[in-house]
Write a structure and sequence with these properties.
alpha+beta
């Protein structure tokens, strides 16, 4: 029976290419959330075919070829490292290339890869990788075949293993994007049981999505307008731009150098993060570099263990510096703490106040800057800061 299920899934994915594409899409839409095969646990007997263009790659790179090799070798940890971490890459590996009306490289074998991913998660040996299935959901849109199959498995994984904290722990903005994807489709259906396990704010988000968010014969607007979701930035736009500087830093702890672009001194507060996927640098986040009009200005962005820090200074006022430390955690960039250094006076007995302020803020938060804690006031300094003798 299991082999029949797998056969059915492969048949569903492989039918209808070329001139039959429209018919295949309509059939898939009609069958969303129904007739979906269950994941197989007998995966070792499958034969895997290499991508059509096989070239020698650096084994440290994140690439489609290295994903294939890790699957072929059943190298569990490498497979999880190589598996896509966002929707764009997932769709680019397993989805349909609409502009060229052709399948992407692993389209025909997407069932195997998706089943193997969830098989590994069911072993409970890799709990840290559960957050990656959530990151794939962010900014996702329903498509037939591989995307639909992945969507189905994410919902089942959360429900069967009671992993609702994967959503409840998200910021509201991220949760909205994830929940939109999980219930998106030709005929969205509210899942009261799923909703009952969400905390109050996330449950309200899901209810609001079903009231105004999902397309229903175009009666309701899309809460994520295309111009907002598809807005992106290209690294090449900043390469020769005198108003910006670029630093090579591993920002997601995968051992590969990425790119951080920052507006220069007195040029604004833009900070952009680009992830190195082994082939190109993909834009992933636009945030701030802590520069202020008439206030602190960017000095540099510097790598450190587990992340990087942004140094700013207030010009023309003696020693007045800030070091904002940022790490990559749960697929987000978190400002963990800010260290403020300021000189007490210009007298001979002057000293430096060093104030380490806990932040715990997500750099992607819309109201991030408003929540930023600054230098403690004069009353607090004596209790929360240390002193360095000049």
């Amino acid at each position: 029976m299991k082999m029949l299920f797998i056969f059915f899934a492969i048949l569903l994915l492989s039918c209808g290419q070329g001139n039959n594409r429209v018919e295949k899409e309509q059939k898939a839409k009609d069958s969303v959330n129904t007739n979906l095969v269950e994941p197989s646990e007998n995966l070792n007997e499958d034969e895997w075919e290499a991508p059509s263009e096989v070239q020698e790659k650096n084994p440290l790179e994140i690439s489609i070829l290295n994903l294939y090799k890790s699957m072929e070798d059943k190298d569990e940890q490498e497979f999880l490292r190589q598996f896509p971490k966002d929707f764009k890459q997932f769709q680019g590996y397993f989805g349909w290339d609409t502009p060229n009306d052709a399948p992407h490289e692993l389209y025909e074998h997407s069932v195997h890869y998706i089943e193997y991913l969830f098989y590994l998660l069911r072993t409970n040996k890799y709990p840290d990788h559960e957050k990656n299935i959530i990151s794939i959901c962010e900014n996702g849109r329903w498509e037939p075949d591989a995307v639909n199959y992945f969507q189905h498995h994410v919902v089942n994984h959360i429900k069967e293993n009671e992993k609702y904290n994967l959503i409840n722990s998200l910021s509201d903005d991220r949760a909205k994007s994830v929940l939109f994807f999980l219930f998106d489709g030709p005929h969205p259906k509210f899942d009261a049981d799923f909703a009952s396990y969400l905390n109050a704010s996330k449950k309200q988000i899901l209810e609001d999505l079903f009231e105004t968010g999902f397309f229903d014969n175009n009666e309701n607007p899309d809460p994520f307008p295309d111009e907002e979701i598809n807005s992106t930035f290209t690294l090449s736009d900043y390469m020769e731009n005198e108003h910006f500087f670029i630093r090579d830093i591993d920002i997601n702890n995968d051992g590969v150098l990425d790119k951080i672009v920052s507006a220069g001194r007195y040029q604004g507060d833009e900070l952009l993060l680009f992830i190195n996927d082994g082939e190109e640098f993909d834009f992933t986040l636009k945030t701030i570099n802590f520069s202020e009009d008439g206030g602190d200005q960017i000095v540099d962005v510097v790598a450190e263990d587990g992340g990087f820090f942004i140094k700013t200074a207030f010009p023309d006022r003696g020693l007045n510096e800030a070091y904002h430390h940022i790490i990559f955690k749960d697929n987000s960039w978190i400002l963990t703490n800010s260290v403020y250094r300021t000189q007490s006076s210009n007298q001979k007995d002057a000293f430096i106040h060093v104030c380490d302020v806990t932040q715990g803020l997500n750099m992607a938060d819309t109201h991030f800057f408003e929540k930023l804690k600054g230098m403690p006031d004069e009353v607090e300094k004596d209790t929360v800061c240390t002193k360095e003798i000049l």
